[in-house]
Amino acid sequence: MERRRQKGPGAPVRSRTLRQRLQQFVVVTVGYFPPGRESPAAVVPTGRPYRELLTDLDRVFDELDASLTATSGALGGSSAVLDHPVLGPFSVNQWRRFHLVHTRHHAKQIRSRRQLPA
Fold this sequence. Notes:
The protein is mostly helical. The protein has a domain at 19-30 and 50-118. It is built from 4 helices and 2 strands. It has a two-stranded antiparallel sheet. Strand 1 and strand 2 (88-91) form a beta hairpin. Helix 3 packs antiparallel against helix 4 (92-114). The N and C termini lie far apart (40 Å).
């Protein structure tokens, strides 16, 4: 987001494909995060204690919120500002909604896994 803010409001943004528009509608507008896509290895937690992860998540979410707020102030909340690697260009408002839907998706996974026998 910082690099995008530095480019200013006139920086070009990719156009959304029809497929991306449909996927964005399902995820961002409807709030459904489809299962089945593997997470990139770089973002999969690996054996770190739960409390340590929670501390990091609080910090990362605070940083994300501050970054989105600054970007919204500089570029507006409804103009596309940054590409999602699969879903295409998102506005700040769409990024916020995407992270909410994505977090809910993972919360469901965590709840279901906690109920499995050890």
